[in-house]
Write a structure and sequence with these properties.
- The complex is a heterodimer of chains A (about 425) and B (about 80).
- Chain A is an alpha/beta fold.
- Chain A has one domain (about 10-425).
- Chain A has helices at about 5-10, 15-35, 45-50, 55-65, 80-85, 100-105, 115-125, 130-135, 145-155, 170-190, 200-220, 230-240, 245-265, 290-295, 310-315, 325-335, 350-360, 375-380, 380-390, 410-425, and strands at about 70-75, 90-95, 135-140, 160-165, 275-280, 300-305, 365-370, 395-400.
- With about 80 residues, chain B is α+β, with helices and mostly antiparallel strands.
- Chain B contains 2 helices and 2 strands.
- Chain B has helices at about 5-15, 45-55, and strands at about 20-25, 40.
- The two termini of chain B are about 25 Å apart.
- In chain B, about 35% of the residues are buried.
- Classes of the chains: A alpha/beta (about 425), B alpha+beta (about 80).
- Chains A and B meet through α2, α3, α14 and α20 of A and α1, β1 and β2 of B.
């Protein structure tokens, strides 16, 4: 068996504590994923990645660094991967999705901070995540107050570049984000030593657009009834997409989509036809946060869409690649990324429109609007989301949770009752 | 499994032979030295057949470990 301990030690990780995290993964993954029946065969790649989640990809990134390439750790879907890929760098997601990291994070931020932020800080300062350790530069963005403060704390320990995200969606905000992308491009050029050219950026836009198209195919397959893939498996694919090489990511997602399209043709599903179809919206679900999906899918429902950053926002809308100057390309990137409807914007009608559109496209029976505890912006939007859904006659369940196990039974009760109620409609 | 290549070879071999198998994180009882390892999850009834296939394919394994009733979807223990 490949022993990654020497690599982790070289990275400066806390091996003893990290082993405790490795201890927990097989049982959690077994209960959550391997308990499913009739999974698509092409989920094997994603199972493989999870089985070596802290070994396989970090080892690849280290090999890249030996060739002089750089690794950029990011926290948000607004950071344009295209710029990094164009300069021969690699992007890796850094958001923490495990309760394991939360206590270490609470040493640096108040306990009433969202668990995603606490886990991310905990993973960094606890030295228990190789993706943090291997990153040459962290790239943050101003999408919430908690993250802004967290980046100050991270930045005191490791170089952290911040992109100033506009808070509105006026024309001048799109121009502002274009200028932020241009400034980021300069930083990436300095870090990688690679000069950005129109041709390089055009190629990178093609690569990331192809990745988006492949993931979109998998999502499109979920519109079928019976649904050919579980929500949990799709979530895993999406979560891993944040870490993987984008070309391989597209290849694997396309292979999975091929299989799903064949399943649809054959009438094969992972749940019986007519299983209540649930869409989840709210705060993103960083790996290994699988709790809500698992509870829904072991309570009689099927998750068929995620209207969130670890969902539709990650792949919808292609970047226009017709620009002939870097300025054109930066503007095309800005326009695409500004189409994402995070709750950080004000006003934010786009998110409501997306939720209603997705609910109809995926033919959902009900929506679960779930935010992580202390994620104020998503929590405050809940009444407007519920009202818009009620106006469309779509039932909505509002939930709040974190990464801990101790509310699982309460969630089961509420989710189970919600799905049962959908059956009475 | 000894290497990542081995796990893929044996997985593909099982698939070709029509035997159900899934790649999975190595159960900790098989890996006291927690190391993020890959394993192949199989039905114990296929144990001998799969070991023969592994032998024939030149796949090196670290052994076969029986893990009875270790998967419980209602346990609600996340990581």
């Amino acid at each position: 068996m490949t022993d990654y301990h020497p690599m982790w030690k070289e990275l400066g990780m806390d091996l003893e504590t990290h082993d405790l995290l490795c201890d927990a993964l097989p049982a959690a993954f077994g209960d959550t994923y391997l308990s499913q029946e009739n999974r698509p065969e092409n989920m094997a790649f994603y199972d493989y990645v999870v089985s070596g989640i802290h070994g396989i990809r970090p080892a690849e990134l280290i090999e890249m660094q030996k060739e002089g390439r750089k690794v950029f750790g990011t926290f948000c879907v607004y950071v344009p991967d295209e710029i990094v890929v164009a300069c021969d760098g690699a992007v890796t997601g850094l958001c923490g999705g495990s309760q394991f990291w939360v206590p270490d994070g609470e040493k640096y931020v108040p306990a009433d901070t969202c668990p995603l932020i606490k886990a991310s800080l905990g993973a960094h300062f606890g030295k228990t995540c190789p993706y943090f350790m291997v990153s040459d530069l962290y790239v943050g963005e101003t999408t919430c107050d908690g993250k802004k403060k967290a980046y100050e704390i991270l930045g005191a320990d490791k170089e952290t570049y911040i992109m100033d995200m506009p808070q509105m969606k006026r024309e001048q905000d799109v121009v502002k984000w274009k200028d932020e992308i241009a400034a980021f491009a300069q930083k990436v050029e300095e870090t990688t030593g690679v000069a950005l050219t129109v041709e390089r950026l055009a190629n990178a836009i093609d690569v990331i657009n192809a990745k988006r198209a492949a993931i979109a195919r998998v999502y499109d397959a979920r519109k079928a009834d019976p649904v050919p893939i579980s929500g949990k498996d799709t979530l895993l694919m999406t979560q891993i997409s944040f870490f993987d090489d984008p070309v391989r990511c597209a290849e694997m997602a396309n292979k999975l989509a091929d299989e799903l399209e064949q399943r649809i043709a054959d009438g094969v599903g992972v749940f019986p036809k007519g299983t209540k179809r649930i869409m989840i919206t709210g705060t993103p679900m960083a790996i290994p946060n699988w709790k809500l999906h698992h509870i829904v899918e072991t309570s009689g429902g099927a998750v068929v869409c995620e209207d969130m950053c670890t969902g539709t926002r990650y792949f919808e809308n292609q970047v226009d690649n017709s620009g002939t100057t870097l300025e054109d390309q930066f503007m095309a990137l800005s326009k695409r990324y500004m189409m994402n409807n995070c709750a950080c914007f004000t006003p934010n009608p786009g998110r409501i429109e997306d939720i209603i559109r997705h609910a109809k496209e995926y033919n959902v029976d009900g929506v679960i609007d779930c935010n992580l505890k202390f994620c104020t912006i998503y929590n405050i939007e809940k009444p407007s989301v519920a009202k818009a859904l009620a106006d469309e006659g779509i039932p909505c369940l509002s939930l709040e949770t974190d990464y801990a196990d101790n509310d699982a039974q309460q969630l089961r009760t509420r989710v189970g009752a919600f799905i049962e109620m959908l059956g009475l409609k | 499994m000894s290497t990542h290549t081995d796990v893929w070879v044996l997985y593909d071999t099982c698939k070709a032979a029509g035997i159900s198998a899934r790649i999975a994180p190595t159960p900790r009882i098989a890996d006291a030295h927690a190391s993020c390892g890959t394993s192949l999850l199989i039905d114990c009834t296929h144990r001998d057949e799969i070991l023969s296939l592994a032998n024939a394919a030149g796949v090196a394994t670290n052994g076969v470990i029986e893990v009875e009733n270790s998967i419980d979807p209602k346990r609600d223990r996340y990581c």
